Amino acid sequence: MPPPKDVVKIAIQMVGAIPQLIELQQTKPLAAVLKDVCDAWSLPNAEQYALQYADGRHTYITESNRREIKNGSILRLATSPDQEAQRLYNGIQSKNVDVKTDSLKKLASLSQDVTFAQEFISRNGLKQIYSIVEEGNDTGEMLAHTLKAFTELMEHDFVSWENLSTVFIKKIVSYVNMNTVDSSIQQLSLSILENMVPTSHLFFELVRKEVTLDRLLTHLQVTNAQLQLKAMALLIALLLTATDAERQDMMDYLREKNIRQFIHKNIIHSSEPLGDEMAHYLYVLQSVSLNLCERRMRTSMDPYSQEQRELLQSLRQAAFESENEVPASNYSTERRRSLCAKEFRKLGFMNNSNPAEDLRRAPPGLLALDNMVYFSRNTPNAYSRFVLENSSREDKHECPFARSSIQLTLILCEILHVGEPCSETAQAFYPMFFGQDHFFEELFCICIQLVNKTWKEMRATQEDFDKVMQVVREQITRTLALKPTSLELFKTRVNVLNYSEILKLRQTERHHQEETLAVPVLELRERLKPELLELIRQQRLLHLCEGTLFRKISSRRRQDKLWYCRLSPNHKVLHYGDVEEGVHSPAIESLPEKIPVSDMKMLLVGKECPHTKEKSSGKQNKDVLELAFSIVHDVEEYCLNFIAPTRYEFCLWTDGLNVLLGKEMTSERTQTDLDVLLSMELKLRLLDLENISIPDTPPPIPKPPSNLNFCSDFSHAEQ
């Protein structure tokens, strides 16, 4: 007979004693349970003890988390959190260096536990840590333990980062700027500054002043991957906290120092594989850089601005004045105005008498003008060839340079997400972005020539403008999906993907769609579906057995803490636990926590998850909502919360968990995988019917013959 729901069978250990096997009644007060355990071992003062998990992080058992104890859990009797907090509080003030160091080491370990942290902070323990840092000159093991303890205590959000003193901050900054300090101390110091910068603009100003960009670039150039990662994290925190003007200044300075080339060569193309955290920071750096274009993109042209009018005139002059024998300034005002209008029409402006009107639309606003000017100045031959070549065509077949440039700029802004907030979890960046200064402008220069090439291939007229730009968008999108490593490679691939290739791809996709809509084929699809869905279910469960590395994300910042979750090979238990950076596939035995599949009640996703309800709403959390899911187990108030690293992982995990719960797989990835498998299976089944049209209805059965005399009679065998 199974035990009652409120009773769990557990073991309790104590050093030097025989373990106790007890049935823990969850309705019984924890103090009474401790009294019984202590009495069994003849220990007085039961209030001085507490229960901890014997494995993993040794979390203290409290009334709030006791429901998480499972059948078969192993606990241990330990000193109570308040007693331990007092002992370590006294220990870190000891004059004996060994005692002080050991106390700080134990403090760094125990501070991960929220119950202990609360007790230690309530004794004003953080003040003692401040004193050790501010007054001490040690840069060895003791300091490393102190900074680790401080970081762990601050993770619980009991104390605001804004309470830190300037003296403390400057001391942390000094460790970052030292050349002869241990790398672990520098990593912890960089992490502390990264946490602190977003909380206050005053802190931002202080750190930006004290930790120069040159110093951060020095840390980025070390071979220690973790130190490199922490330096990048602080750089990103500074960029995200800065005002638009400050961010522009910082990015200009980084450009002068060739940070892109360094990242392209030494981080993206290093011998070590790129971690998820670094990939995220590179994505953010790319996003921040591209978003510097947002102000110009959202600014309409001012026809009264002398600077903007001069830029506009420079386009006309670069294209036509060199071919005119007589300068335009020598003509009368009326003649000059007429000539300019004609030349602006040849440039492809819709409103040739007042071309500034074409640039009043924002987006793309002045960004389109900037791109056109960049193209004319940096590739003058290509610019002149584009304009003059189309000037000599018939009116209907000329490709309008200005109109195409304005639309192309808008397309590039949409594809590259210019002006959109950074995602908290995304890792998708373009390697070629870091291989080129003026990336957006250089990409425009390649793509505007692609527009002209595609226009000619399509033999387009003015009425076909939207069709041409739609093809160009498809060419760019398909090529970017291949993740070219340089702009040169992008240029080669996008030019190979000409209009005829696009037509072939579209035709193939259309043909595939048409042939799969025939009635017999649809019936065959339905017959194949159950078998292929079972195949997808098995793949999802196999993925859960392999496991995935998840990150803990708070509302304050992207966390460094990692945890791993995987399904047991017999599909009966989910194992999970915290892991260190760099561990990719921990053994199932090393994951201390577990949830029996039989205890899982339901799966929650998105806004339904408890950990998304705790977060503040905002654009920055939209991507977190799309990746969040929770497993409700035992009773509804206890959940295991997940933030998937990618949408792909979200789909596989939610599908796998639904399979375990006996429900349908609902993710968009299921339909995609099913379509791919059905397509492959149908092609194999219909291979013999290649180029044979399949009728919508089966052919009629012919009438039986009038006689069967054509059949041979074998009933009389020859003797």
Automatic annotation (TrEMBL):
Residues 307-480 form the ELMO domain. GO terms for molecular function: SH3 domain binding. InterPro entries: ARM-like, ARM-type_fold, ELMO_ARM, ELMO_dom, ELMO_domain-containing, PH-like_dom_sf, PH_domain. It comes from the Eukaryota. GO terms for biological process: actin filament organization; apoptotic process; cell motility; phagocytosis. Keywords: Apoptosis, Phagocytosis, SH3-binding. The gene is Elmo3. Involved in cytoskeletal rearrangements required for phagocytosis of apoptotic cells and cell motility. Acts in association with DOCK1 and CRK. Was initially proposed to be required in complex with DOCK1 to activate Rac Rho small GTPases. May enhance the guanine nucleotide exchange factor (GEF) activity of DOCK1. This is ELMO3 protein. CDD domains: PH_ELMO1_CED-12.
